[in-house]
Structure formats: structure tokens, C-alpha cells
Design brief:
It contains 12 helices and 14 strands. It is α/β, with parallel strands linked by helices. It has a 6-stranded mixed β-sheet, with helices on both faces. Strands 7, 8, 10, 12, 13 and 14 form a 6-stranded mixed β-sheet that branches. Helix 5 links the parallel strand 5 and strand 6. Helix 6 runs antiparallel to helix 7 and helix 7 runs parallel beside helix 12. The longest helix has 22 residues. It starts with a strand and ends with a strand.
Length: 294
């Protein structure tokens, strides 16, 4: 089975299922595991935004989408040369990865025969379900069930540790300029970690909001988890939210590693968030995953 992953979370799923040797193509953003990008053929490219501010990135995204442009480029010839059997893609977010329709069109044009599996979870339970889907599509269904069982066991351990404790009000800031609140599976992570997500959109898309909307519910803890950033970038952006929440704890989290990518490490995210919300009840988070800004 020759696999191609067109989104970073799918690459993580493939490796978690023990299928790394079957993976032949990835995107320029597939950085977990770190060697995936260097050892596989990159079939999707895009603009390097590392030197742009959050405002500049937001402006770029809005301008491209308003003009009907794409944020990602499919290297169709490279894809065809890999002769994939299964391609993993998504339709959940045009900002996060190439939509599956673009892939289907390219395959039709190239005359390439491959199954295309679109992964579009909206909740934490949905995310776990995608692991089973990928494993089944790759011909190893038992590996998906085994992976989910292990992850569900870890979630159950957190639930038991925080049971009966008061649930602090938690606001998650997924982007800071302009501010976006958290949607899809992120509120589920807060609930699983023993918190109450406020100003959130469970199961729905993240949307731009005002700072007043984030402040109004009176969050006790604010988590800054910007999409596309690891801990250092999140910590820099967390500084910007401090004036809006003078009475709350403010934490930065490795957004890409623990919160925004719908892959196996979301369970690491639940454990890390639980360590913030209930530090006396669960083990401390791994170094390099969270940082208290105030």
C-alpha cells in the first residue's frame, strides 16, 4: 500500500498506525515526525509565513480566498509519479490544507487511479474515529482499534483524576490578531481536561470574535493556541492578550503539537491542559509544551 498524506495530522496518524514505511508523499508542513518532510516526496507546497506577523498572515489568507486563489499548491506530476494507492486529504478547512475536490480533479486530469479519503472531524470523538477509518482504508483495521483503545485509556485516566473537582472557566484564543475563538474539537479537549470552555463553538468552525466577547464570560484561565505555531510562537502571541484579561491566568500552548491538528497528539493536549487546570491531580506536562505567561 502506497500512501500519500496531504495534511500534517494525517501524516501523524499514518506513523501512529505503524505505516510510516508505506508513506511516500507528504506536504511541506508535515513536521511530525521531523524526518517525514526530509525522507518523503513533498507533493504539496505553499507560502512560508514564518517571517509574517499574525496580522499579515490573516491579511494574506483573506486576500487569497477572496480572490478565489489557493493557499496550497499541489505538485501534480510528483503525485502521479508516486503512483499512490491511497491519498489522505480533507475538506474541513481551506486554510489548513488542500481540499479533496482539488485532489480529485488532479487525479482525473492525470488519469491516476487512487482512493481518496477525506478526514473531516468536528469533535474529539470524530478525530478518534478517523484513526479507525485510515487504518481500515490502509488494510490494517485492527491497528486503528488498538490505537483508539490506548488513547481512550489515557483519556479515561484524566477523567478519573479530575472527577469531582470544580471546573474552571477557560477561554481558548486560536488567533490573536484578529482574535478567533476555538471551535471543532477544541472545546472537547477543555471538557476532557476538567474545564468549562467559554466563548467557544463546539463542533463548529472557529470564527473571528471581539475581545469583548472573549472577556464577557469571565474566564479564569486563558489558553493561547495559535494555529500554525509551536510553543515559542504561542508564547510571543500570548503577550498580546494580557491587557484584555487582567485577572486571569494566561498560558501559551504548542498549538500545532497539542490542540489544532486533529491527530493522536490531541490526547497529549488533554493531558497538558489538565496539568494547567488541575496541577495537583495529574502529572506535569512534558517540557516544551506549555508555558505560563501570567
Amino acid at each position: 500500500m502506497r500512501l500519500v498524506s496531504l495534511l500534517p495530522s494525517a501524516t501523524e496518524i499514518v506513523y501512529a498506525l505503524g505505516l510510516g514505511d508505506d508513506l511516500v508523499g507528504v506536504t511541506f508542513e508535515c513536521d511530525e515526525p521531523a524526518h517525514a518532510r526530509s525522507s518523503k516526496t513533498v507533493v504539496v507546497g505553499g507560502r512560508d509565513t514564518r517571517d509574517l506577523t499574525p496580522t499579515e498572515i490573516d491579511d494574506y489568507v483573506r486576500t487569497q480566498l477572496a480572490a478565489g486563489g489557493d493557499l496550497y499548491t499541489l505538485h501534480a506530476d510528483a503525485l502521479a509519479g508516486l503512483a499512490p494507492d491511497l491519498i489522505l486529504t480533507q475538506d474541513l478547512c481551506r486554510v489548513c490544507a488542500l481540499p479533496s475536490g482539488h485532489v480529485d480533479d488532479a487525479l482525473d486530469h492525470l488519469g491516476c487511479r487512487a482512493d481518496v479519503l477525506s478526514l473531516d472531524p468536528h469533535s474529539l470523538a470524530d478525530v478518534l474515529g478517523t484513526f479507525v477509518e485510515v487504518a481500515a482504508a490502509a488494510g490494517v483495521p485492527e491497528r486503528g482499534r488498538e490505537l483508539v483503545a490506548v488513547l481512550e485509556g489515557r483519556l479515561a485516566a484524566v477523567a478519573a483524576a479530575v472527577a469531582g473537582r470544580s471546573r474552571p472557566r477557560v477561554a481558548v484564543v486560536e488567533w490573536v490578531d484578529p482574535p478567533f475563538t476555538a471551535g471543532h474539537w477544541v472545546p472537547d479537549l477543555i471538557a476532557a481536561a476538567g474545564g468549562e470552555a467559554v466563548a467557544a463553538r463546539p463542533g463548529q468552525r472557529s470564527v473571528q470574535v471581539s475581545w469583548a466577547e472573549l472577556v464577557a464570560p469571565g474566564p479564569e484561565i486563558v489558553l493561547v493556541t495559535p494555529c500554525g505555531y509551536h510553543l515559542d510562537g504561542a508564547a510571543r502571541q500570548a503577550e498580546a492578550v494580557l491587557p484584555y484579561f487582567p485577572d486571569a491566568q494566561v498560558w501559551a500552548i504548542d498549538g500545532d503539537g497539542l490542540v489544532v491538528r486533529p491527530g493522536p497528539r490531541l490526547v497529549d493536549g488533554v493531558e497538558a491542559i489538565a496539568a494547567i487546570l488541575h496541577p495537583s491531580a495529574v502529572p506535569p506536562a512534558r517540557p516544551g509544551t506549555i508555558k505560563r505567561v501570567r
